[in-house]
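Why do we care about 3D structure at all? Because function follows from shape, and shape follows, mostly, from sequence. That is the central idea of this module. The next example makes it concrete: a single protein chain, its amino acid sequence, and then its structure expressed as tokens.
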Amino acid sequence: MSGSKFNKFIRDIIDRTLFLQLASALGVLWLVFSAALFLAERGAVDSPIQSLGDALYWGIAALSTAGIADSPISGLSKLIGGTWIIIGSVMFFGIIVSTVTAYFMRPVQRPTDRLVESIESSLEELDQLSLEELDLLKDNVDNLIEHMEEIQNRRE
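And the structure:
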């Protein structure tokens, strides 16, 4: 993928999917669960989680499902950790699936080729319309143009 195509791809992902919002939510949950784990483990004897940094590392390691995270000691910490692993994993894979689905479903949601063909075939029949029908068509096209300009302005 060339640089400009890749940039367009990234821009489409950012503009047309919920990737950033979902990834941000996952990041916030990681911070919250890591902080909660640190607080629950604080003071536990022989706990491998001695600092917030250890808890943050544990949160990433546990989410990666690589099995490299040290196990928390206290019961509350295990509950918090287990909840994080389930919620974090579901969100992580949900972000991937929803982003890919939203990105590839866009052409299906906006079948421009069929719309253009329909308009072209209708234009061939313009000479059969009455003046009233042509005025109505003009009003509809004007409304469509205004609507499209509003959408364009919102995107900018």
